[in-house]
Design brief:
mainly alpha, D-Maltodextrin-Binding Protein, domain 2, 16 helices
Length: 391
């Protein structure tokens, strides 16, 4: 067994060294690093430190309203700029042209589609001031009025789905996993087909077992792909720790950790299928058609994750897709980000995927072992299994 692992490690080491030295690896890794850094830097460049709203009024803005809005701005981190217009027509025109966020004339509040939530703040301030005035006229003291206005609304408790920000993280994880598995699978298939078509595999099989060559190749591509994923997420992780204004949803860290586990499981599930399919070809140009069934299954898993699971994560089909081994590596991370998945379902999905991966590794190894020595033509899967039964 020790000899088997040494031979496998040599194949993996050879594959890792060749991949890191290749121009393709350097270009792809550089692009991933640039995209990751841009995802952190660009939003910081575009965002404004503080939002400024403009309130237009016909005549001077009441002192009480200015004080109320300024206090609200300090609490919610925005500022208000006040503009005095000649009449109501000028106020309406300023709001219509976008020169003012909202306009206030008497008991009329003028807004537009782009006003956002600021008019609500203005309306609440006006109501609070008018309520105070009427209570004072009714004989209440300022202390009594302050006591009435200090009554807090009921505590809001969110019992619905997780916040949108975390759902976005889950959706992004699904996309990254799909792209990583597709890229790694195609790389494995190309490597296997190239070694077979150039007869390199014959040299390897002269001193190694087929399982050593297969596992070593898969491990090398997996290590390189995992390294590129680290390059992709490291700038974001560093930015979250260093910069105070870059935040992830509270549970996003756990989501990313689970995504790493699912990448390993999904890679073990699909990598050997790509390798087995590529071992059937005789020319490297046939790789695309040979691996098409595996690619279709992987693409189907992605489509299920972003449609069925994202739309109705607690539906029957959403739950089934997150548990079925071939779709779980992509569907479960998306569904898990919804915040309503029981832990036992997550563990069950992982266990089923591990079992399926072990079965597919055994099956793929058998195909790889028998098809790799057949050259000069493309091999059919049925032919491989028939030769296995005769053997």
């Amino acid at each position: 067994m020790g000899t088997w692992w040494r031979g496998t490690a040599l194949v993996a080491e050879r594959g890792i060294v060749e991949s890191i030295r290749s121009r393709t690896f350097k270009v792809v890794t550089g692009i991933l690093l640039v995209l990751s850094v841009a995802a952190v830097v660009v939003p910081q460049m575009l965002r404004s430190d503080q939002t400024t709203y403009t309130l237009a009024t016909a005549g001077p803005t009441p002192t009480g309203l200015v004080a109320a809005l300024d206090a609200a701005g300090r609490a919610a981190d925005f500022t208000v700029r006040y503009e005095t217009k000649a009449d109501v027509t000028a106020v309406r025109q300023a709001v219509r042209d976008g020169d003012a966020t909202a306009g206030l004339v008497g008991d009329s509040l003028y807004t537009s589609m782009a006003s956002g939530t600021f008019p609500i703040v203005v309306a609440q301030s006006v109501v609070a001031l008018e309520t105070s005035r009427r209570l004072m006229e009714a004989g209440l003291t300022p202390a009594q009025i302050a006591g009435i206005q200090s009554v807090r609304p009921p505590q809001q408790v969110d019992v619905g789905r997780v916040e949108d920000a975390r759902s976005v993280v889950g959706f992004a994880v699904g996309i990254v996993l799909f792209l990583a598995l597709t890229f790694a699978g195609n790389t494995i298939a190309t490597t296997v087909a190239m070694e077979k078509s150039t007869r390199i595999s014959e040299v390897l099989l002269a001193v190694l077992r087929p399982s050593q060559a297969l596992v070593g190749t898969v491990a090398a591509v997996g290590a390189v792909t995992f390294l590129q994923l680290i390059v992709l997420v490291t700038p974001l992780a560093v930015a979250v720790q260093v910069m105070n204004d870059v935040e992830l949803p509270p549970v996003a860290g756990g989501d990313l950790a689970i995504a790493v586990v699912w990448f390993v499981l999904g890679f073990a599930l699909y990598a050997f299928l790509f390798a087995a399919a590529a071992s059937l070809v005789d020319k490297i140009t046939e790789v695309g058609s040979a691996t098409m069934p595996v690619t279709l299954v992987l693409t189907g898993s992605y489509l299920v994750a972003i449609t069925v699971v994202a739309a109705n994560p607690e539906g029957v089909w959403g739950v089934a897709a997150s548990l079925f081994p071939l779709t779980a590596p992509i569907a479960m991370p998306v569904r898990w980000a919804g915040g309503l998945v029981p832990v036992w379902q997550l563990l069950l999905a992982m266990a089923l995927t591990v079992g399926a991966a072990v079965l597919l590794v055994w099956m793929a190894s058998a195909i790889y072992r028998r098809a790799l020595v057949i050259t000069g033509r493309r091999v059919k899967v049925t032919e491989v299994f028939r030769s296995g039964r005769r053997a």
